[in-house]
Specification:
disordered N terminus, 7 helices, Mycobacterial_A85_antigen (chains A, B), homodimer, Immunoglobulin-like, Rossmann fold, alpha+beta, Esterase (chains A, B), 5-stranded antiparallel sheet, about 375 residues
Chain lengths: ~375, ~375
């Protein structure tokens, strides 16, 4: 009986797969589950195995509720009255794998989805949703030794403020009290802040898993706020100048970290990388301040040309990456030119992702094993 | 000229004060400023020097927008169309000093205020607003040495999960690598989580300031999630059982902390305290597991009777507190009975506060100097 039942199940499964293949994207599988980023106990938003997202908002007297996620260029997903009086809607197509910011527009007002947790992006705390990625294992929370993420408040004379950084210390950091570690300074993108790399980026879990798998030697990661010529919130990147942040990072934060953590405090053991605007900052600061970093990483954050690098003897790695839906050719071409000029340049393209966090999680996962090895 | 101008100014000021005194609470001073808990760059919500709060929500097509804060029992503050098309409103009276959770109801749907930062309370991320307290200096962010707040992921076999705790390590923890510290286990209230004591409680800043002022000897604080018989979100405290959490705390987290931080790992150097439901947990666990803690603190979280304490020889302090708008007599009476029975019992009443975080910030500030001193 058991064997027969199993055979019928397999046959049904094969039929189901065939049906799905014939129907193409028009068939939305009804296997929706709560997004893993939902607030505790919240059923919605949900995602299905194809990457569709379904939203539910309770606002009985609202005339118009729209979710900012959906198909590109079509203005997101409009919710409609459901049988229970709530407003519901499903994206017109599957979303890219990974993390997406979104918000809800209720009768013209922008709010967050009460079902989802919030993540700082677009210069505000936005709702977040996660479409499970086929390779999500590398950033999953597992039963392995975990490092800590420490909130550090450090004094900044140049900005006359107490500033915040998060410092990832690897598992074992506390136990072996004589060991010293290299440091990666890792920057967020425009409109994000120092919480981004551990919250939406899962940098600590990526590191924990790499270390548990014996794929990297442990190092420290430092993440701080890079939009220090704040708060020109309307002006975007146009008026961004790196000088203020460069002083905070190089002249204030690095000495603070070296004084308060067990670091290998020299250029050979110091890396800088950043995503998007953080890549622009990495580009500028590594060029403006030769002698500080020896590993450079631009994640969806531009490229270097061989001619502009003025610290050639001390540059041990140049890592350039982006999503395949961004401009992969630019990244590949730039890395080739750098290699041609004698640099240890590596390019990485994240398949089927755009200017979003799965690109950067994967990029960190590729970058980490290349750091502090030569 | 300058002197004359100054005299006129003082005269005007005196007149203004006289007017205000005559008008009483009906005069709302127009000195509103953005709440210090606003999201970066956000002007609203605002608070004035009297403790009134003013809200502004942009939702052009909304018919009804209400803020949950206002005068008790009157259903909060209803916003009305302003000249610029936004919806605005001011509380009918001043709010208590300190931190308040709130939310916005837009056409029947519950959302957060896009202007405010979010804090986990009521089993959801809520908006937060801060009415500056006359004694806010003790929890202010100052240019003093700062301890770190470390996010720790620890394994819990009993709940088959990787659980999260936050650990405050005092300034200097990293530098003197042989020094060991006592530990306070500090619990949040119902509907809150392990982020509450550092986010809305400012426990780390209270400690930093006490240490900088030479008022306490440094100790470690550990904060973890106490609602482990989750997720009965509708059932409130009714069905709460402490057993699951007690196992996580005593048999899993304490050994993890003692193995991974430089603690004085004995009863004499271990305290437990909690607010509201966290006080109930403290009460139960200290009684169920004698031999683990020697300092007990209930912050708006009930009382002990002398008869129920079964570890008399090892109890070094019983601290009971609440706000003056709660049941201060119960706290005072219980402390007196404990003293009478020979315990080192201390009661503290926070003036003009209710079951809210200013009560608990002040309680921690009073409790800390009494810990680990005898």
């Amino acid at each position: 009986m058991k064997t027969k039942f199993a055979i019928i199940c397999v046959a049904n499964l094969l039929m189901a797969i065939t049906c799905l293949a014939q129907a193409g994207t028009a068939t939305v599988l009804e296997d929706f589950r709560p997004s893993v980023l939902n607030q505790p106990g919240q059923e919605y938003p949900k995602v299905n195995s194809q990457g569709y997202a379904r939203f539910r908002i309770v606002a009985p007297a609202a005339d118009s509720v729209k979710v900012s996620l959906g198909l590109g260029g079509r203005g997101g997903t409009r919710l409609a009255k459901a049988a229970d009086g709530s407003l519901m809607g499903t994206t017109e197509g599957p979303l890219d794998e990974g993390f997406h910011y979104y918000h809800v527009t209720v009768d013209g007002g922008v709010f967050n989805d009460p079902g989802a947790q919030n993540y700082y992006g677009s210069v505000r705390w936005e709702s977040g949703i996660e479409i499970p990625a086929h390779d999500q294992d590398f950033y999953a929370l597992k039963n392995v030794p975990h490092g800590n993420v420490q909130q550090v408040l450090f004094p900044s004379q140049s900005t006359n403020a107490i500033r915040r950084a998060f410092v990832y210390t690897p598992p074992g950091y506390e136990k072996d009290r004589s060991k010293k570690y290299p440091v990666l300074y890792l920057q967020h993108g425009w409109g994000e802040d120092e919480t981004a790399w551990s919250n939406q980026g899962r940098a600590n879990l990526i590191m924990d898993n790499l270390i548990a798998g014996g794929k990297i030697k442990p190092f420290i990661i430092v993440m701080t706020y890079g939009m220090t010529n704040e708060l020109k919130f309307g002006s975007g990147l146009r008026n961004f100048k790196v000088d203020t942040f460069q002083t905070v990072l190089v002249d204030e934060l690095i000495p603070y970290v070296d004084a308060n953590f067990r670091t290998l405090a020299d250029q050979a053991h110091r890396a800088m990388a950043g995503l998007s605007m953080g890549g622009m900052e990495t580009h500028s600061i590594t060029l403006n301040r030769p002698g500080v970093f020896s590993y450079y990483g631009l994640l969806s954050g531009g490229t270097y040309t061989p001619a502009e690098i003025n610290d050639k003897a001390n540059v041990k790695l140049i890592f350039l990456s982006c999503g395949s839906k961004e401009r992969p050719d630019g990244v590949r071409t730039a890395a080739a030119a750098l290699k041609e000029a004698g640099y240890n340049a590596v390019s990485y393209i994240s398949e089927n992702t755009a200017h979003e966090f799965l690109t950067w999680r994967r990029s960190l996962h590729e970058l980490a094993p290349l750091l502090f090895v030569n």
